[in-house]
Write a structure and sequence with these properties.
heterodimer; A: seven-stranded mixed sheet; 15 strands; globular; B: eight-stranded mixed sheet
């Protein structure tokens, strides 16, 4: 019997500093590993611990696997201290992917805040592979300050340049700007003001810190999105990732196997969802 | 179900013979309570049949308090467990759904289940804290065992629950088909015990508990039963529960050899659901206490189609705060229906 807890060994190929508190680790799995946008994996730092992360790299990239991680605790500290050549473990993929089949022909509103841009990046890269399936992508990004922005070069340069070629637009903001910042200022919900989007034929995908998800959801409802059109990436303490250890329950729903992406109508009546 | 009869004397010598060739665990009395112990030829006569549940829950045989899962345990012995009561059989059914009922199977658990023979038995002297009848479980197992035994003064009725159980008995000539009269007599005995449990729980009302508890998240609601504040969050109730399965994983390996150890956890511990940044979806004791009961009587029902509480009463017996869950639930359900009205 295959051991469900055995991680695949992966070599750390690179560590990219994204912001003062966020790094991206680039891994080369030593066995085949693939995932779909929205699915997550458990990343083991041997001898330290394991934590769940959604990859931030493209699901189409079979050569490498990237995780963008904010330093917040014991395991993420150890991840930030990794060096090129170190070995880590990865098991997965787990959970349900974004239901891209339901997104066909629609305008897709992506809303990411802070390190929450990580899973949105994987989704965005997957959407770009099959961009003709979708009507348009509106990408709203937020961060506290310009220094806290992750994927700066991509968001502000590379991806931005795609806007002329593809049905794509960016709405970029920071909570508090500095002198060099030439984009918007204000919390990410502000980017949702004056959206020229056919809401009936749209879905909204949101990922970010709980407070941001809460207010983004409320704003989306206010501008006319229905509860089932809002896709939220939920986060909970997690160990097994396979629906056994029960740490990740939101009411009766497992974040690990029923999620990690839920529509708002699935979870709105569950206890303390924005914790 | 096939039910056989054997005299008590022949059963004792049958077990004596089995003790020579298999590893058998059975309940023994120690300070007026029952504990599982390995049966050796010199203590075989002291096995306590058909009294009441043991102090330890059955789960410790299948999911020990702490064990290595990466790499998985290699040497898992074949064992026989005797004297398992219906409450623990029902706990095992939940464990089976959790650990081997899905695509993902816990390797150690699956292996142990495979290698264990379960001989359950009727419960004849329930404690006052026992309340299986309140959660729809009878004090006698009807399925989920390999063999079930009901011991009377004159003999033993043996229900065959599986092929594994049948081959344990083999071709032994001392077993006979049980008569209708013997089975009827057992039925009457069983009913009496059921009634006794219902009678000792007459002050509590857990009827339609799942429907009634739905949506009972509010911290304020769980502040109403005064006893909850006596909870010291020690985890006794979850550790003693035959169907509490929560665990955490620890990494103890190195880059060359990854190792993972699985350890029981308790949702009453403040750190249980706390995330990396320090936020917890259940910040107060009341949220955590509520969560355990909501999990037992609602979430598990949604997840696995049956209630997570087996009415064994261990959480009541073991609580250092002397919290009686039946009382809490009765109060919460009463308050909630008053609010809903």
């Amino acid at each position: 019997m295959e051991n469900i807890y055995r991680p695949i060994r992966c070599e750390v190929k690179d560590i990219i500093t994204e912001s003062p508190t966020i790094k991206t680790v680039v891994l080369k799995p030593k066995e085949e590993f693939s995932f779909l946008a929205g699915q997550f994996a458990s990343l083991t730092v041997p001898g330290v611990g394991e934590a769940p992360f959604t990859p931030s790299s493209s699901p189409y990239d079979k050569e490498k696997l990237e995780f963008t991680v904010m330093r917040t605790g014991r395991v993420t500290d150890a991840i930030h201290n990794l060096k090129k050549g170190d070995i880590v473990g990865v098991r997965g993929p787990y959970g349900k992917p974004y239901p891209l089949e339901h997104y066909k022909g629609k305008e897709i509103l992506l809303v990411g805040g802070g390190v929450g841009l990580a899973p949105i990046r994987a989704l965005f890269l997957a959407l770009m592979e099959t961009i003709s399936n979708y009507k348009r992508i509106v990408f709203c990004c937020g961060a506290r300050t310009p220094d806290d922005y992750i994927y700066k070069e991509m968001i502000l340069d590379k991806w931005h340049n795609l806007c002329e070629e593809y049905p794509l637009c960016f709405r970029i903001t920071v909570d508090k700007k500095n002198e060099e910042w030439k984009y918007g200022e204000g919390v990410v919900t502000k980017t949702l003001d004056g959206l020229d989007i056919d809401i009936k034929n749209s879905v909204a995908v949101v990922c970010g810190p709980p407070i941001m998800m809460k207010f983004t959801t409320l704003k989306l409802l206010e501008i006319g999105y229905r509860e089932e059109q809002i896709y939220l990436s939920m986060e909970r303490k997690m160990y097994c990732a396979v629906g056994q250890c029960r740490h990740c329950l939101i009411g009766d729903l497992f974040v690990c196997k029923d999620g990690p992406v839920f529509t708002y109508d699935q979870i709105k009546d569950k206890p303390n969802i924005w914790a | 179900m096939d039910t056989l009869y054997i005299t008590k004397k022949d059963w004792d010598s049958f077990i004596k013979g089995k003790v020579e060739i298999c590893s058998i665990f059975a309940p023994f009395e120690y300070e007026r309570r029952l504990f599982y112990n390995r049966v050796s030829p010199d203590i075989e006569k002291d096995i306590v049949y058909n009294r009441v549940r043991t102090v330890e829950p059955l789960k410790m045989f299948f999911a020990p308090f702490k064990e290595r899962v990466v790499p998985e345990v290699q040497e898992i012995p074949e064992i026989v467990i005797m004297g398992v009561t219906a409450c623990d059989i029902n706990g095992l059914k939940i464990m089976d759904r959790v650990f081997i009922g899905d695509d993902y199977k816990d390797p150690n658990y699956a292996n142990r289940r495979e290698k264990t023979l379960i001989i359950s038995s009727d419960c004849l002297s329930p404690y006052t804290t026992c309340f299986c009848e309140l959660v729809g479980i009878h004090p006698y197992p009807l399925d989920g065992f390999d063999l079930n035994i009901s011991v009377f003064e004159e003999g033993v009725l043996v229900d065959i629950g599986s092929d594994k159980g049948r081959s344990f008995i083999g071709e032994d000539q001392k077993f006979f088909q049980a008569s209708k009269e013997q089975i009827n007599k057992r039925e009457q005995n069983r009913k009496k015990i059921s009634e006794r449990i219902k009678e000792s729980n007459r002050d509590f009302d857990l009827g339609n508990i799942t429907t009634k508890l739905k949506g009972a998240y509010q911290t304020e609601l769980w502040k109403l039963p005064k006893d909850i504040e006596n909870c010291v969050q020690c985890g006794s109730c979850t550790n003693n529960c035959p169907s509490c399965v929560c665990f955490l994983l620890e990494d103890t390996g190195t880059q060359d050899t990854m190792k993972k150890v699985k350890v029981w956890d308790s949702c009453l511990f403040p750190g249980y659901a706390r995330m990396a940044a320090g936020v917890s979806p259940r910040p107060t004791l009341y949220d955590r206490y509520a969560n355990r009961l909501l999990c037992k009587y609602w979430y598990i029902v949604e997840n696995y189609g049956k209630t997570g509480c087996t009415g064994c009463g261990r959480c009541i017996d073991g609580c250092p705060g002397k919290i009686d869950k039946r009382k809490i639930l009765t109060e919460v359900l009463r308050e909630k229906s008053a609010i809903n009205r």
